[in-house]
Amino acid sequence: LQVFDDEGKDVTPHPLFHSEANAVVPRQGKISASSAYFGATGSGFLSFSMHQTSGENASLELICLLLNLEQKRSRLLTSYNFSDVQVRQEEIKEELSKEDLDRRVEIYLTETETIWILDMPSVAVSVESEDAGRVLERNRIYVDICKNRPGNDRFVEKMMQTINGAAKNKEVQCEKIIMEDKGMMVTSWDLYDSFNELEIKPTSRAEGNRATTGKSSRPHTTKEHNQTMSVSFDRGSTTSSIMVLESAVLARFHEEEECYSEAILTSENFQQDLFFMERILMENIFQPKLAAYRQFPVLIDPDVTSDTSGTVAAVKEAKQKEHDKDKKDKKEQKEAFIDPSILSDVNKTPEEIVPPRLQRLWSYICDLTNGHSVSSMAWSKANPDLLAVGYGAFDFKEQKKGLACCWSLKNPMWPERIFRCEHGVTALDFSTASPNLLAVGMYNGSVAIYNVRSCNDAALLDSSESSKKHTGPVWQLRWVEQDRGATGDGKKERLICISADGRITEWLIQKRLDCTDLMKIKRTESEKKKLPGEKERKSEALISQQAAGMCFDFHPKDTNFYLAGTEEGHIHKCSCSCNERFLETYRGHKGPVYKVAWNPFSTDMFLSCSADWSIILWHQDSRTPMLTFNSNTAFVHDIMWSPKSAVIFAAANESRVEIWDLSVSILHPVISCFASPREKFTSVLFATNTDCLLVGDSKGEVSVFELQNLAAPNSNKV
């Protein structure tokens, strides 16, 4: 059989195996060999019989049938197209007999061995496969290696297939290390005796001496030498037993000593002694600053004046530095600005005038509060030395867990009480009737009450179970006295809150916290003057009928009236007797009103600050602002009137804190203190019994400043 292509070339495949000439090949093997040679791809069993009278025609039909089957299956295994191959019959020299034609021929079709030219294993593994756990573990190990890689000397970044750098050897010379060998031989019975000795009460030394005397009084025999050896062996074992016993007793003594030390450290008396010791140390460290805070003279210990030449020199040097600093401040103040009204009443030159300033004394900050923004501050009504500070962010994107800390003047370095909250603290206030109760408002709208007398940081009451709780941040809360004339048991308080959900609520303190609405702040349309010839415009539909409340303040004399600032920039005068409408609306701000404050002396006046960079002085009988203060292009977060003067107030904007004296100037603040580049002032609070100001910032620091050279006028009216 020969195969020719279209051009007539012989392309008949040649067998790879050449049998020997003498070997006898069965005839039926030719057909199976030729079929296997052409690459049968399917495995199976084929059996048939040939019944044909003509041998040549039968062989030709069989060969053509096999070629047609192989032509369809071997297209991918050969580079030749058998559809175009011409098969020519050659004369068969051998003649088949009738027995050969009738013989049954069995042909086996098998699959050839698979040859892998390119194998690319999969990089993804099914989660349900058996190797999923092993692959996840290898991935976790690889992630840990990648995390530990930066800064680790065991990992070096370099290209592959490069020569490693030559290793360097470093040698260090040190003193000779002296080694000592110490050993002791202990037998098993020594260990056994020592272990039992700890549990059994040891015998007295007298009984031991008697036993030894009785043993030595035995008569000497010919085995005296052996007896002496045995006695010496007993002495050696006794010595080793005593050494092991001593080590065990020392170990037990150390354990008892540690237990005793731990009991001392955890005892209440020792804790109280440490508390007093800490107080004494804080008083010694902060004595000059606390004396300046309470406006006392700074004292020097007279017992050490004899040997204090260096101390006196240091004090003189400090005074000289302070004097030079005062001269520098005077020069800067003179060059910057001195209001002419300061010189109106006194005949002094600008060089003789000592300008008012803020002298920083100390700051309340620790590792726990560092990084938390100060949101609110409040003094205790019963203890003027106790300050409550709330820590929480005002921005939604910066929210994290909040803190409410109680600081004392006796320890400015660590708070007395720490209350951890799940959400940022936005407002807090102490109760007057129950000074141990501290109310805290949070960013998620919840209200909690804590007991500052207890060391437990869990809340006494919480509004989480109330069905009427706020759905927005509680921006301000305050304990308000119902009857200011009553004293003792007749004095009652109520807790008032304002929230971003547009509700002003009164909380009832019973077995749980529950509230009622004093007012639902409704949105008001802005008053626009209609130009001549202008048509009336249709009012736009409001997304929400309620405006977000931001702040409030009750009248200092009549607690039935209060002011409420909104996010629209409006200030509403409301009454507790009427919750349907506003008594008056003051329009002057173009942004959210952050704080409103009644004047404690002139009760018809009040201040307001806003995000529109302005502070406005109002009269309750006039809808138009009386004075507007714009000193800086920054949000004004907080304002507060001075408790000692009707014309002095403090304001905190993002870049600086300002002290305004309306008797001196209505254009510029008399004192300005700038913040650090990365800090923002958030709140201010005057001290109740001293001339000091507390300022909170965005880094969690509450700075205490002394107001120096600020003469408060005698008038209590604006």
From TrEMBL:
SMART domains: WD40. GO terms for cellular component: axonemal dynein complex; dynein axonemal particle. Pfam families: WD40. This is Dynein axonemal intermediate chain 4. It comes from Burhinus bistriatus. GO terms for molecular function: dynein heavy chain binding; dynein light chain binding. Keywords: Cell projection, Cilium, Cytoplasm, Cytoskeleton, Flagellum, Repeat, WD repeat. GO terms for biological process: cilium movement. WD repeats lie at residues 586-628, 629-663. PANTHER family: DYNEIN AXONEMAL INTERMEDIATE CHAIN 4, DYNEIN INTERMEDIATE CHAIN. It is found in: Cytoplasm, Cytoskeleton, Flagellum axoneme; Dynein axonemal particle. Residues 203-233 are annotated as: Disordered.
